[in-house]
Every structure is written in C-alpha cells, then in structure tokens.
Amino acid sequence: MENAGRHMAEKISERVSLDQHITIVxxxxxNGGDGFVIARCLKEKGYQHHACQLVPDQKxxxxxxYHKQVYEQFGGMIERVETLDQLKEKCASSDVVVDxxxxxxxxxxxxxxxxxxIEVINEAEAVVFSVDIPSGLPANENEVVDMSVNADxxxxxxxxxxxxxxxxxxxxxxxxxxxxxxxxxxAFSDQKQMRWxxxxxxxxxxxxxSFSHKGSHGKGAVVGGQLSMPGSVAxxxxxxxxxxxxxxxxxxxxxxxxxxxxxxxxxMYHVWRDDQGILIDDSVSSLNHYDAIAIGMGMGxxxxxxxLTLRIVNEINRxxxxxxxxxxxxxxxxxxxxxxxxxxxxxPHLGEMAMLTETTIAEIKQAPFxxxxxxxxxxxxxxVLKGKFTIITTPxxxxxxxxxxxxxxxxxxSGDVLSGVILAFMMQHNERLPAxxxxxxxxxxxxxxxxxxxxxxxxxxxxxxxxxxxxxxxRTIV
Length: 478
Known about the structure:
Keywords: ATP-binding, Isomerase, Lyase, Metal-binding, Multifunctional enzyme, NAD, NADP, Nucleotide-binding, Potassium. (6S)-NADPHX binds at residues 298, 349, 416. It catalyses: (6R)-NADHX = (6S)-NADHX; (6S)-NADPHX + ADP = AMP + phosphate + NADPH + H(+); (6R)-NADPHX = (6S)-NADPHX; (6S)-NADHX + ADP = AMP + phosphate + NADH + H(+). Strand 1, helix 2 and strand 2 form a beta-alpha-beta unit. This protein has two domains: 2-191, YjeF N-terminal domain (Rossmann fold, 3-Layer(aba) Sandwich), CATH 3.40.50; 198-477, Ribokinase (UDP-N-acetylmuramoyl-L-alanine:D-glutamate ligase, 3-Layer(aba) Sandwich), CATH 3.40.1190.20. The chain has helices spanning 2-15, 29-44, 62-73, 84-92, 114-123, 198-204, 230-242, 257-263, 282-285, 303-315, 325-331, 334-339, 350-357, 361-366, 368-379, 414-428, 432-452, 463-468, 470-477, and strands spanning 21-26, 48-53, 78-80, 96-100, 127-131, 153-157, 175-179, 193-195, 219-223, 247-252, 268-271, 292-295, 320-322, 344-346, 382-385, 390-393, 399-402. Strands 8-17-16-15-14-13-12-9-10-11 form a ten-stranded mixed β-sheet, sandwiched between helices. Strands 3-2-1-4-5-6-7 form a seven-stranded parallel β-sheet, sandwiched between helices. Helix content is 41%, strand content 16%.
C-alpha cells in the first residue's frame, strides 16, 4: 500500500503543478488506504490539498487505518464529507480530484450515498485521477456498468484489469498507466492472461545468424484472390516477405498473376484453377511442401473456393492461417477444424467472430475473452480476435492482448497485411504464441509509428503504407 500510494503520488506530481489544488476523495478498503498514502506524499511535496473521507470511521480498517493514522501523525487533516453539497464545494474549488473511493470487486448497483457522490465527481470540471480502477467500474468483462467515475487518468496497480480491454468499459479509464509496486514476476507465472508489451517482443524476437539462408526462414504459400480482388493476396504476400519469409509462393487464378507480380516481384506463383475455373488436381497436395500456408484473402465465397479451403484444412499437415472469406468457408464444417493435428490460426474481426460463434457483435464486445477462449478450446485453434485491442487465444486457453494500433488501420487490406506478418513469423519462431503475438504487436506498432512520425495521418494511412514501414518498427526491436 505504501509503494502503491507513493508511486501514484509521483505520477500525479509529474502532471500537476504546485499551484494547483488537489482533493483526494477516500473510501474504505485498500483503495482508501492508497488515498491516505497519496495525501501524505503530496503533502510532503508541498501540494495544497484536501483529504476527504467519504465513509464512516468504522469502515476504515486494517492497513488503510494504519495509513490514515500515519497521515494524521504527519500533520495531515482529514475532512469527513457526509453530504453532496460538501463534496461539490470541495470539487468546485479543486483543479484535480484523486478518486480513491472504490476498488476492484465491484459488481451490480452502487449504493447511496456513494452513487451520487460519483455523479458529483463526474460533474466536476477538475481533472480526475483514479487509483487502480475508476470507482464503480467492474474489473472483468461481461459486466454492466451501473455508475462509474469517468477518469481522465488511471494509475493501475501492477497489471491492467480485463475491463481495460473491453470496448464498453475501457473509456472509463481515460489514459491509463501501470504502476509497479514491487510484486515479483514469479507471482504472475501461473497466469493465463497477459498484456504483450515491447519487452516481450524483444525477448522472443528470432535472431538471424551469419549462416542464415532463404531456407532458414520458411517457405510459405498464400492462397486466394479471385479476379475481382487480386490486391488482397498481393498485400499478404508483400507483408510476409517484408516480415522475413525466406521464400513465398502466391497460389491464385491465372489472370491475377500479372497484376500481383507487378506489385510483388520477389514472390513465385502457382495457378490453382484452370481457365474454366476448375481446381487443378495437384494444387492441394503440393501445399504439403510448404512450411506454412495463409488462405482466404480475396477468395470469394463460391462453392469451389469453399471446397478448396476445406480440403486444405483437412489434408495439409502444416500450419495454416485462415482469414477473410476462408472463415466463412470453415463455418460450414467446424469438425474438420477440430480434427486437425497441425496448428490452425483464424483471424476474425468482430463480425466474423460473431458469425463463427453464432452470437451477435454486441455479445462479442461484452465478453471477448470468454467467447474466444471457449471457441479456441473447443475447436483447438489459435484465435486472433482483431480490434482496437487484439486478443490472441491458444488451444489451451492462454490469452494475450496487444494494444498497439490506431484507427488508421480501419481500412480494407489491413487484415490481409496482418495475415502476411503472421505467416512469416509462424515460420521463423519456435513457439506459436510468441509468433502470433509479435506479429500483432508489430503490425499495430508500425501503424502507430507512421502516425507519430508525421509521415501519415489516421485518415490517409493505407495497408500498403504499413507494409512499406514495417522495417521502421523492426528497427525498434532489433
């Protein structure tokens, strides 16, 4: 508690000047204890502040009571706030409000008078900093918000909560930052959910040796592209090559090859349909000579395309990434997916995940972790649920979140690029989860760096721009 409060006070002081007035609103439990420590540390730093206790004295117990007493012995004054008018007066005269009212474990209806006091905090013109989690906000997904503080900043203790990555709950946090309080990494060793960060990419990123050759980094194939959508396979192929694939073959319809080859001269090509549109017999069996295959991009949803996808999933004993139209193809026979022995990665967006699970987009948004976990474990696949927060789930139920990326990626072709990066990394990493997580992280990081550098905006960023700038993101890692 001392560590948490002290570190949060430090973070607040980085953003608040000494001439600004701060009100710390304090509830019971550990969050209240953090509030007393913050009040003491801000007093040490010379800040004008009020420590306002919103709950009766008997609700301040244990460590929180100890830190209340330390604050008082240090000369701190605690004001017992019992009415809404008192709280309104304090908030109105403050530049900053520190929310240390309620912590994790809150579900259901917020009781009075705290409910209306949260409303007062939200109505204040002051900047609001929340301790660990905005008061009233559930920590987990699939919960309905009754009443919550709308924070401008949240300082999360040690590790982010699940709700920080759920669309309907994340906005309450405002900008958030993890504050370490000294909990050893070993304490998290048995956790099956984690946020994938820059240091994780650096730790797991594959190193090339001076004796590397093109065969060392994978021979991949991209299957897709009907006549009306040749660009999709071109994007996937270019992204895979830019991400380090040693050799790459694009399997597409004959008339697409000149178009794709004009954009991707480093790839090789294979015709998987004859001039009458009939599947060439050896097209599927030949894929067993590759190290990994990506399928579905720009493929269309015709019966012939569906048969090809299902044959590849059923007959090819190599890692397969299924995206776009391929996801609609496998929906007709998910038992084929379950029966596979080699890894299968699916990369749905919210609508495609709703289609696969026969739920609604709203349901996916409310419970993305549990729905993707149930699907991944049932069908023994890797699920990459794309969005502002990309959730990666393994067949064993392990889950990783990447939160790089920006609205510039909300354009056609971005998913095709991601599939290409995943394909390349699946052939270069020894472990599947780091390969997929690194691909998602770097795909988003590239988009972020394109915006922050000023080379692009969220409006003009194209999928092809992301491919061109992957090297910039790679340089930050290697």
